Amino acid sequence: MGYTAREEWQQHYADGKNFRQLGDAERAVFAEHTPVPEGGGRALDVGCGTGELAAYLASLGYAVDAVDFAGSAIARARGEHAEVEGVRWLQLDIENDDPAKLHQEGYDLISLRLMYPFLRDRSRVLHALGERLRPGGALVVITPVVEHTPEERRDIALDEDEIGLLAAGWKQVVRLEADELAVLVLRGSCHRGAAAVERRQPPTGHAVTGALAVVTDEAGRVLLGRSRRGMWELPGGKTSGPEDFAAAAVRELGEETGLAALASDAYVVTMLVDDSHGVPRLTAVVRITAWSGTLTTQEPKLFDRWEWHDLHALSCVGDVFTPAAQALDAVWPGVIPDLPPVHAYPVAVDQPPVPGEPAEAARLRHEMAETVIDGGWGPSEQVQEALRTVPRHRFAPEVNLATAYDGGDRAVITRRDETGAAISSVSAAWLQADMVESLRLQPGAIVFEAGSGGYNAELIAHVAGPEGRVVTVDIDPWVVRRTRRFLTEAGSGRVTVVEADAALGAPVHLVPRGGFDGSVMTYNCWDIAPDWREQLAEGGRLVLPLEVGGYTRAITFERRGEVLHARHFTYCGFVRDQGQQARTVPVAGFLDGELTLRFENGIAAPTAGLEEALRGPRHELATGVTMGAGAYFGSLQLYAATTLPTFCRLAAHRDTGVTGVAKDRDTPAILGDGSLAYLMHVQTRCGERPEEKEWEWFVRAFGEQGPQLAEQLAATVRAWDRHVRADDNSKHADPILTVHPAGTPDDVLLAGDVLDKEHCRLVFRWPGRNGHVPGPARHTDAMAAATVEA
Description:
The longest helix has 18 residues, at about 705-725. By secondary structure, this protein is α/β, with parallel strands linked by helices. The strands form 7 sheets. Strands 22-21-20-23-24-25-26-34-36-35 form a 10-stranded mixed sheet. A 7-stranded mixed sheet has the order 3-2-1-4-5-7-6, with helices on one face. The chain has a 7-stranded antiparallel sheet with strand order 27-28-30-31-32-33-29. Helix 1 (about 5-15) packs parallel to helix 4. The protein is globular and about 95 Å long. It has 18 helices and 36 strands.
């Protein structure tokens, strides 16, 4: 019964035929090795057939999802086990269908009885099922083995090499036998870290040239062969005679897999130069954009089988032939981490986009869009359509679909620096929608983006329409290479990627006459570069995450002459800036590393005498300002950072300390001469329900001037409570903010609280404050600089 097609199994069960009955030895294995967890468990029976095992698992106490791709099998299972409770009978092709019907919170037990050898893409399916196991759960594979199977039926059995591959990567593997069947009980991570490996036999000759074919199926999965050398490889091989690289890749694809492609659909995208056992090696990476035929193993002496692999699972696929791993990285940078170095020479070709995505991606993309829209972040039809259309997962291939299409606050980190800090990411979808919406783009708009990745640029391009264009700039060569490749694979062709310092704006020849219609920055900006304003059209909008006192807000500005006027504020956080705008925050440490003061506005204040003060008595003052659970106080942070002359942030690095600030948290603070005051919220009312809980803002202080500083900080909190805060978290008052070029005289500025940066002067006008333009206050003047209120 080595059937390979769904129709054959459909007919098999429709004709009343059965499968090998569940034996007592198999039942005993499940009862002993996979007991139902306390409180109940959930099981998934894959390839359930007529449902004998599913019914038995239900009798043990599992709630069971029993799936089979043959409708006739499911129909018989429902009829033959109609009296069994606790089983959902689902018609589902576990290899190809959208798994939306499966339980989203995972399973304690997943069983594959007598069906694993029938899978086409065994590694991919096993990885996907392993991802659905709950902590402590088990995946049980029951399979015939070659030694107990007649030669003519060994296509339904596994040999020892296949069993070893199946078990690789699991933390706990228990192998049992039941009636001459192998039973594998697998627990722990199914991940096996990818490793680039070389063949044992060195190549012959003075140099080796070859071509590797990178091919994807209708779901966007890449084709890899499990070679007899025990590694995964791409189709490909040496060139023959005067044959060009593209022709060699097409020929090798046909000879090894049975798939046919035209030379016109083969594109050499990168040349890789390295060596193998000291022999120079030149490998052409050939992207094949279209093919036909049926996948078969044409060279069984060299390959066990060919499988289609999800891109996000490549990082844990095991051993990969080094040139194949580097070729995969050339097409999808980042999908396999920690590769050995190679000299890569990208080739400029006009490769068309390559289609392909699983049905699950389309469903999750629409769910993400609806989550964002329901949150009020994408009100326009153009932005909503962009969210539903642009394939976000293709710009983050290293993560699974659920992560890529998370509609919440999750950003996908795509690059980290040597310290582990994130330096490039695909931002949360709601925030991208909000920022694109804030640009208010018209059809045909030309937009500048600082900080690349591809997805955000494609959202903008979709909103701007067929006549629109996006220029995206990034300082990191790796990010630029990645963005170009992803846009080639899945883009509209309306995005230009430039490697440069985005703080210098776009290259002059790419700036439209009259300036960009809109500009967006996708990283935290401490300052506003002059080129961003100067390259923006009159009336155009600039959206950027601006740091003020270390707090970030995505602020939408509109250009009016040399002045930028704020129109919209959104609470957010992004990766830090690099290049000319990169900076180091001045800090001062105290009490042997217990505390740090961060001067986020750029200039450190004198701290003489503060160490001694922190070892002395602590003063405390109640503000009388309270808040309930879930209250938003981000506007208080911004209000304090822009209205208090000696503002800084106090960070704690121990769980217990003199300040009471929790470890790894920080709070607004102000300084005096050898004195410090800072803000805390203290729970003053407890309860079982959130609405019964309450917190009050307190000010704590140290040093001789501590009581006066505490009064000043408390007055700021009370002023915020009266003039800025609202009961509705979304209705807090924003300041009127204007941004002027650096060097603008004080008498030209509007009245307000002024914050000076290197390239600009920010003027904040908060409700309830009489505007003033303070000069650079001396530290001894801090006590006299009381909060000005109406």
